[in-house]
Structures are given as structure tokens and as C-alpha cells.
Amino acid sequence: MKNQELLLVPGPTPVVDEIYDALASETRGHTDPRFVEVFKRAIGNTKKLFRTDGEVYIVAGSGTLAMEMAIVNTVARGERLLVISHGYFGDRFTPLAKAFGIEVDVLQSEWGKRVDPALVEQKVKEKAYKAVTITHADTSTGVASDLDTLIPIIKASGALAVVDGVVATAAMDEDMSKAYGGHEAYRIDVVLTGSQKAIGIPPGLALVAFSKTALAARAAMETIPAYYTDIDNWRPIMGNPAMYFATPPVNLIYALDVALQIVLEEGMKAREARHVAFGKAVRAALGVYGMTALANEDVAAPTLSCLLYPEGVEDATFRASLASRGVIVAGALAHLAGKAFRIGHMGNTTAAMLEEGIVAIGEALQEQGLDVNTEQAVRVFSETIEAVQA
Ligand SMILES: *Cc1c(COP(=O)(O)O)cnc(C)c1O
After folding, report:
1. What Rg value do the Cα atoms of the chain yield, rounded?
2. Cα 202 to averaged position of ligand 1 atoms, centre (Å)
3. Where in the sequence is the domain holding 306, given as residue range(s)?
4. In a mutational test of the pocket of ligand 1, which residue from 197, 207, 333, 346 has the highest number of ligand atoms less than 8 Å from its CB?
5. DSSP structure class, residue 337
6. Residue 299 gets which letter from DSSP?
7. How much is the pLDDT for 73?
8. What is the Å distance from ligand 1's center to 377 Cα?
9. With 90 as the cut, is the pLDDT of residue 389 above it?
10. What CATH number has the domain bearing residue 293?
11. What is the tens place of the pLDDT at every residue in 251-274?
12. What is the pLDDT confidence band of residue 296, given thresholds at 50, 70 and 90?
């Protein structure tokens, strides 16, 4: 199957033909040895993706389920969680953790900015937190977190470092074997993600990786207020997918298997560099149209951008005009609704797709009476990619 439209929302992202083909393979029983083989390879490749010596869990559900699995298996009722929030998705950890009786403190940045690491340092000195959450890239604001600064602060305090990698995993560095600040014990403890963002398969899979330290935290809790998301129930299946706990989404696992092969074949370093280049190039090109990214370039995410409209653009009309050209972008959230839009440039999106999107955006702006130069924008796009990759 071929895509009819160019899906440039910040997830789901464009699905490539090989992945559609995998999804359309014959559905087999979940204990069929032919399927079990594929699931095993996907589990192995997920471990490779995160470079973890701990465990990974792949279950049916969205990114939010992955967030829940991460929290409920590491933080007990009555324990403290610190949330570092750069927007709407960072904030989501608060009601989630509160639903399980966890005590939550939040450090919220102004939208488009980062939380000052000095505040994090101060906060973890004031109280003992069981875990601290970092949203690697916040999909509402296009702000990326600086793991190199935050992980050492969190780990030095004795807390677990939980990274929300939805919109980052498979595009940004989330190497769980990396010793941050050169300190052996300063490693990421949990990374969680969903299938439909930078991994590039349709929605429906939650993926969570736990370090040995995070697994020890689960082991220290006798029971947790969860059943489907209790990793103790899934451990036998992740060790041997011929076992049964709850039916895995067979066709999505086929898709994940192919998607991970695509990711590992490109190589994470190359993939990270490509995303950095795409992010900078998209923002530079849209700057030609008088659009400004909400996040300054030094904190901007490689995977998506939130752009403020220039004077004279009506949000709904602009996006409808763009959709009539087959290009789909997302509106902005909360107080930015109507004032900005969000564009994804991640996963298996290509430079050619982004160029097509940039031209269509220019045409939609022209339709609203703006005098913009699409050729110049495309030129800036390719020149920026070359400059970043040089
Ligand atoms: C999309 C997203 C989520 C939520 O994922 P769902 O699949 O919609 O449940 C969580 N965190 C971030 C950073 C996201 O981009």
C-alpha cells in the first residue's frame, strides 16, 4: 500500500512500504513458532536499540501505557516523584502518578524554554525522590531535554532517571549503556516509547526498557497496583515469547521487527545526525516564510517543531488549505492553539517529503495573501542540511 497523503504531524509518522507489507502479513497464532521467532528478534533488536543490559517490555498499548508501565513498576504508593516538564506531555506524568497515590512535585518551564538544571539540583537536595521523569522531547513545545546535564544530577541524588522517549526513541541518543559524566553509576534507568513516532510504525505498541537498577526497584516492591502493566507478569514472555500472558498484537510485532531492522541498518549515529539536520533545516526553511520556532535553536528538538505563525495567518484555514494539498500538520496545544502549528520531521520521513511539505506550506500561506518565496525556502532547506552534515 502507498501513502496518499504526507503525514507531517508529530506522530503518527509516515509508514514506509516494507512496514505496511509486514503489517499485512498473514496473522498467525501468537505461540506459532514462526511468529515466536519474529517476536524474539524484535525483543533482541529493541535491547540493541537501547543498548540495555536490563530488560525490555513490548506490549499492546499507546505511549501513555508505556509511561504508566514505567512509573508503576518503579515508584510505590506514598513515594515521591519529581517531574521535569517542558510542556503538555511532561505534565502528563503528574495525574498519572497521582492516580497511583504517588506524591508528585513538578518543575515546569515556560513553554518553549527548558527547566533550569540548578532548580533540579536544588529540588533533589530538598527531598528524597524515588524517581525523576524527563521528557526527552516534548511534543507540545518542540523542546528537547539535555540528558548530559540532567542524568548526573538525578543519579547523584540516588533517584531513578526515567526518560519519556516517545518522539525521541530511534531518533535521539538514548543509550542506556552510556555512563553520563564519566561516572559508572550515572545511567538512564528507564526509557519508554510508543511505536508511532520516530520508530515509524502505526500506533499500538508500548515499549519500555528497564536497567538492572530499575528492575531492582520493582523487585523491592512485593506487589504493585497494576496487572496488565506489571512487568512481573510479562517477564516470562519477554524471555520466551512462546509463553502466554496476554495476546500480543501479532501484526504490529511483524511491523516492529521490520522497523527495527530499518533503524539498525541506518545506524543510530547516522539516524541521530539525520534528525538534527532535518530539525535545523525545517526551522530555517520555515523561517524564510516569517515563521519562528517556539523553542530557540539551542534547545530545539530534532524530531518535531512548534512554529508560531506570522501576522495574518488563520490557523484552521491554513491547515485546511495544506490538507487540500495532501499535507497534514498538527495544531498547537493549550494556550498556543490558533497561534502556532506543529510539524514532525522524524522516523522514516525523508528530505524529499520535507521539501514537498515546505513548498505546500508556502503555497498555503500564499493563498492567505502572504508574499512568500517557496524556492528560497527549499534552497535554505537543502543548504542547511548540507551545512549541518558537512
Ligand atoms: C505522543 C506522546 C505521548 C503519548 O503517547 P500516546 O501514544 O498518545 O499515548 C507521551 N509523551 C510524548 C513525549 C509524546 O510525544
Report:
1. 21
2. 13
3. 267-389
4. 197
5. B
6. G
7. 98
8. 30
9. no
10. 3.90.1150.10
11. 999 999 999 999 999 999 999 999
12. very high
Contact 345, 304 (CB under 8 A): yes
Closest atom of ligand 1 relative to the 136 alpha carbon: 13
Task: Give the atom of ligand 1 at the shortest distance from the alpha carbon of 10.
Answer: 15
Cell numbers for 110, please give them.
515556560
> What is the spatial distance between Cα 248 and Cα 259, in angstroms, rounded to a whole number?
17
Burial-class residue 362 by CB neighbours within 10 Å (0-12, 13-18, 19+). buried
SS3 content of the chain, % helix, strand, coil (to 5): 45, 15, 40
pTM value?
0.98
Pair (348, 203) in one structural domain = no
Is the distance from CB of 245 to CB of 226 less than 8 angstroms? no
Q: How close are the terminal C-alpha atoms of the chain, in Å?
A: 36
The alpha carbon of 63 and the centre of ligand 1 are apart by a number of angstroms equal to: 5
Mean pLDDT of 362-368: 97
Distance 139 CA to ligand 1 centre (A): 8
Question: For 54-100, what is each residue's pLDDT tens digit?
Answer: 999 999 999 999 999 999 999 999 999 999 999 999 999 999 999 99
What CATH code is carried by the domain that includes residue 55?
Answer: 3.40.640.10
C-alpha 261/C-alpha 216 separation (Å) is 30
Best residue for ligand 1 mutational test, from 139, 162, 304, 343 (most atoms within 8 Å of Cβ):
139
Cα separation, 188 vs 168, in Å, equals: 14
